[in-house]
Design a protein that fits this description.
Helix content is 63%, strand content 0%. The chain is mainly alpha-helical and 211 residues long. The radius of gyration is 33 Å and the shape is elongated.
């Protein structure tokens, strides 16, 4: 067992451990931090596979941007953990079936002849650019899946903006033109009311207390 194999198993163990802690941690902040650890471990595995561009993209985009946003949102929201865990065991059978399906797919892929055929890793030259090779594959062989994924992300973005910016009936909003066009009479109205004061006090001759 060489050094690269040992490093791969270390990163793989860290990734599995962090992924399990993401779904088992009671504190949502701790779960988000374990997800950051899982991203870093996966980036290390991608570097071992000579996919440096994907590793750097994973760290910069997901760890540096998405997870920081998640942490801010989780820390700013007052999450009721007791209410969030209500009905958790109701979804355990569905989660077990989904986990079994994922394990079956992984075993199926890893047990195929293309993966388990004992093929040695391809060693590239020093001037090899995986970024250039990735771009060539995306815009030639996988151009249609790439465009479909981009269209789906665009639709999701537009839908999210439409859901957050729609006008609600119970929401109060300011109409700036109406505020500018208002007159003095609309802002202030003087009402004359007669000043009346009714007092009923009866003095007790014996105690001297007003009632």
């Amino acid at each position: 067992m060489n050094f690269e194999t040992v490093v791969f198993y270390v990163f793989a163990a860290l990734t599995v451990f962090a992924a399990l802690r993401v779904i088992t941690a009671r504190n949502p902040v701790h779960a988000a931090l374990f997800l950051v650890l899982a991203f870093f471990s996966m980036a290390g595995i991608w570097i071992l596979l000579e996919a440096e561009f994907l590793a750097i993209t994973l760290v910069l985009v997901y760890v540096g941007a998405v997870m920081v946003l998640f942490l801010f949102v989780v820390m700013m929201l007052d999450i009721n953990l007791v209410r969030m865990r209500e009905g958790l065991w109701r979804w355990v059978p569905f989660g077990a079936v989904l986990a079994g399906l994922l394990v079956f797919e992984m075993v199926w892929v890893l047990g195929s002849s293309d993966v388990s055929g004992g093929k040695a890793a391809v060693r590239h030259a020093a001037d090899y650019s995986n970024t250039k090779e990735l771009g060539r594959l995306i815009y030639t062989e996988y151009v249609y899946p790439f465009e479909i994924a981009a269209a789906i992300l665009l639709v999701a973005m537009v839908a999210a903006i439409a859901l957050t910016s729609r006008r609600r009936k119970d929401a109060k909003s300011q109409v700036i033109p109406d505020q500018i066009a208002v007159s003095k009479a609309d802002r202030l109205r003087l009402i004359k009311m007669p000043a009346e004061k009714h007092t009923r006090e009866k003095l007790d001759s014996t105690t001297g207390v007003a009632r």
